[in-house]
Design goal:
single chain, mainly beta, 3 helices
Length: about 220
Amino acid sequence: MTSIFRQALGTDFDRLHPRLRQRFGISSADHTACVGTGTMDRIWHGSAVTLPLLRLGATRHILFPEQGADVPFSIENYAYRDSYGRETVTFVRTFEISAHRRRRFDATMVYSPHRAAIVDYLGTHQHYAVLLDLTVDRHGGLLIRTGEQRYTGHRFPTGLSGSAEVHEWWDDADGCFRIEVRVTNRFLGPVFGYRGRFTAQFVDTGTAPVPAAVRPLRENAAV
């Protein structure tokens, strides 16, 4: 089974930095997961008008209203076959905002041959599905931009949705992954984002199965 990122990028996958090829090359056939830990140098949100949207998103592990600096962070990428038989990769990001506040940003991704793209299901119930456009930068980093968005199978109006850009790369000098995420809206402007760094270890899922906590509570067949 080929990784969903290799399927989406085709020959461009080989242009990724070797560390990113290892990280995004996992599949259920490899019985390998990638678990990263690090620090977000900054987490931010937009103006006060974005807060109701962020608070609502937090109820389903999509975005959140807190800001912070030097926030401990983890990301769990497990590859498995979902109940529809699709190759799936989890992107469960946990932010330790404070000693008493932890926030999660959950996503599960599958490759859609029909769409010739990765579909990113956001949140705990996969109600929100987003097509992703992937490109490799000249340094071997991965740039992900969101495209068409659907809510419970229906196209979501562009003006009401957020547009996200994710940039991940390997920092040779510091020996770590770097990531920067920015979410904007056509009318509200900047909505949410974070930037930071992390290192990763690879877990044998043959001896440590995919945790139930990183799987969505509901799966969506629509792509």
